Hints:
This protein has about 300 residues and is mainly alpha-helical. Helix content is about 55%, strand content about 5%. The chain is elongated.
Amino acid sequence: MIAPASAEADxxxxxxxxxxxxxxxxxxxxxxxxxxxxxxxxxxxWVRFDLPHAILSGTSGAAALGLRLFVAAPRPGWKxxxxxxxxxxxxLRADDAQxxxxxxxxxxxxQLGFLLYPxxxxxxxxxxxxxxxxxxxxxxxxxxMESLLVxxxxxxxxxxxxxxxxxxxxxxxxTTDDYGCRSETTRSSFVSGHTTLxxxxxxxxxxxxxxxxxxxxGWGDIAACAGAVGLATTTGLLRVAAGKHYGTDVxxxxxxxxxxxxxxxxxxxxxxxxxxxxxxxVVPTLPTSGPGLALIGWF
Length: 299
């Protein structure tokens, strides 16, 4: 007797070798149209903020404060235009006192923004919240603090020992070139502190975005660095326009600040170089003879 063929075999388009639904089948998702950028991460070979960096930061901050409190700017002070100072003043300095005061306040606002940006935006918001990496944000905050404290030491040192009188400083009554009776602020024109700190912060921003694609890489991070340098330049020009500094005060502060802000993070942290060190630790152990402590270390 010949058995009748099954309905499945007679049905066209049905492959009897295909497994039943739900038995060993694998669903393959279509590939994404655009690859997602990798989130920035602290690289293992980089040098984290550690005790030596804390000592450097604390020493720089304490020395900067000590210089400003206990080392008076030289008397009687000197007030001379050098190099391109006169050209800068003629091109930028405002004529009336009210305008100069307004421009000075604008430079104060820009400086405050520069001091806060690396901490509140790059470290706290972008790294810690958007990229969900609080450790990276913590490292960036500490590194920014380190750069600004080292920069503050260079500002205090130059202001305390150079003794240049600001452009709007007036000599003491009855004299033509003695400014000793004026305040230390009046005799602290070189270097421009606003400009130095603004460019130090800009340098730190540039170093961060060169080594970490915080804004996705490419033009986003390039714009962050370029924008920071542009606004820092604006800060310096406002100090000249407000009659608070000479052009050489601003240019020197820009060079000094950017060098400090960029190279302190780059050379001390964003590098595979690190001094030879040995680390030890005491950890609890549970050997066969009973609980105890073990000294471990790596070199």
